[in-house]
Design a protein that fits this description.
Shape of chain A: elongated
Largest sheet of chain A: 6 strands, parallel
Number of helices of chain A: 12
Number of strands of chain A: 9
CATH class of the largest domain in chain A: Alpha Beta
Structural class of chain A: alpha/beta
Distance between the termini of chain A: 32 Å
CATH architecture of the largest domain in chain A: 3-Layer(aba) Sandwich
Oligomer: homodimer
Strand content of chain A: 5-15%
Chain lengths: ~290, ~290
């Protein structure tokens, strides 16, 4: 049971966490924090939070659990603002979708990595933003990755794990580096391809006509290109190393595929497409 | 009104055309043709066709409208098999998703491009195949592109246009070359990226784990990688020129994007993502 949860950044991710914990009866009080008054008033009105402050230090005072749900580019400032204001028994965790940069930011802001900080990443979300888009079941049956470090207190990890499990999520642990590799492959790289493709088409002559003939597959394929540009800029910069390496390797493979097509090597094409279809079908079966 | 429609290849595309024309009361008799007895019996049972033959020459005899809905790799053989068996007033059209190769196949099979042949492409489909997947409303409000040539009889074009309009489709005309460019950009290229991405991930170490952490965006992005591998091999070979050129250019752009990420050039990233999001949002608004 969490006595007081401070949610820094009451958007889709932080708001849904608060709603889920309330619904599970696992939190007594929720304090919101953010810059926009309107969003926080809305959060109050919706019953997502009990009160709020625009000041991070004030918001975390007395909280035994602090969740930081702000864009990656704002993490460091938030950590620095809470330094010296945390309760004795406070645990701090976050929802950032790259972990290496958050760990670096925390170490710099706190002057060394605190034992009570547990880096985390719930693999969930929609294209919508803000507290109005939040809902209590967002994390149900979704995965949450925690990336504790040698410095991290196992008791803090256990409390963060229990929090996410109370929301219905499945929690796993892995290293920071492995997390950033896996996410580069499964999320960041696909987003780059979708943004890149839509941008390439938008820059073509007669692009209106081109979009007009796009079929259903294109719509699905490019849905993620409607995601928040600022958030994705931050993710690219936060996970630059793994992502740029993977994107560059993928570009080489696409060059090879273009050659295979130009050569008309049907056997090789069939091999690639069959392997991909089998993997995709296994993936979907795995989702049950 | 079509007196007798011959559908060569009674699958999703051909079957849906027959169903739509029947429902519109625009066809008197439908003759199916294909290699698989089971699928044709099913088509009979479902009332999609009135009778069938495994012989193309027999199936087209007396038909005033012939629709060829077979994979691109089978087009030439079908055209060759109907030569000398077509009725005086027959119009032949097809549903192939690349047009340059179909036009070449027709010219070779018929010994010159016949005035009664109207190359066509309905921009519609699902991941499912076979006559059981067909339905009468597949073409409603969807686009059909016709690519008539200087040799094509305008009267034949008008009859094919009327047929598709009776199915609720919006018909437009463009050149063969332009069609193949537009489709390379909006359909063939996205499919290559989806197949390529899933294949790249499947070849990674610990690929089971990688797929396990893939989120909803990945599912949508890669849905088209579950498409028929043989069909896509045929499409790549049929549209090799435009597709390999576009894929190669896109790979170059992804190399540049990887460099931009590695350099940490946030302003440039934001510019790309904002342009893409705006174009994607305009596209979705346009679908209205």
């Amino acid at each position: 049971m969490i006595r007081r949860l401070a949610v820094i950044g009451v958007g889709l991710i932080g708001g849904s966490l608060a709603r889920a914990l309330r619904e599970a009866g696992e939190v007594e009080e929720v304090v919101g924090c953010g810059r926009g008054r309107e969003n926080l008033e809305k959060a109050l009105e919706l019953g997502v939070i009990d009160r709020y402050s625009h000041d991070v230090g004030e918001a975390v005072a007395g909280a035994d659990m602090v969740f930081v749900g702000v864009p990656l580019g704002a993490m460091k400032g938030v950590f620095a603002a809470m330094r010296g204001h945390l309760a004795e028994d406070a645990v701090v965790t976050d929802g950032g979708s790259a972990k290496g940069s958050v760990v670096r930011d925390a170490a710099e802001a706190f002057g060394g990595l605190p034992a009570y900080f547990v880096p985390g990443h719930p693999i969930a979300g929609t294209e919508r933003n803000g507290v109005e888009a939040s809902f209590a079941t967002l994390y149900r049956n979704r995965r949450v990755i925690l990336t504790p470090l040698p410095e991290t207190d196992p008791e803090a990890v256990a409390r963060v794990r229990a929090m996410w499990e109370a929301c219905g999520a499945e929690v796993t642990e892995m290293s920071v580096e492995h997390h950033d590799e896996v996410l580069a492959a499964t999320s960041h790289l696909p987003h780059m391809l979708a943004f890149g493709l839509v941008d390439a088409l938008a820059r073509m002559k007669e692009n209106d006509e081109i979009f007009r003939y796009a079929a259903g597959g294109f719509r699905d394929f490019t849905r993620i290109a409607s995601s928040n540009p600022v958030m994705w800029r931050d993710i690219c910069i936060a996970n630059a190393e793994a992502l740029s390496r993977m994107l560059s390797a993928f570009a080489d493979e696409m060059k090879d595929l273009a050659d295979t097509i130009a050569r008309g090597d049907g056997d090789h094409l069939l091999e690639i497409f069959e392997r991909a279809k089998a993997a995709r079908d296994r993936y979907i079966d795995g989702l049950g």
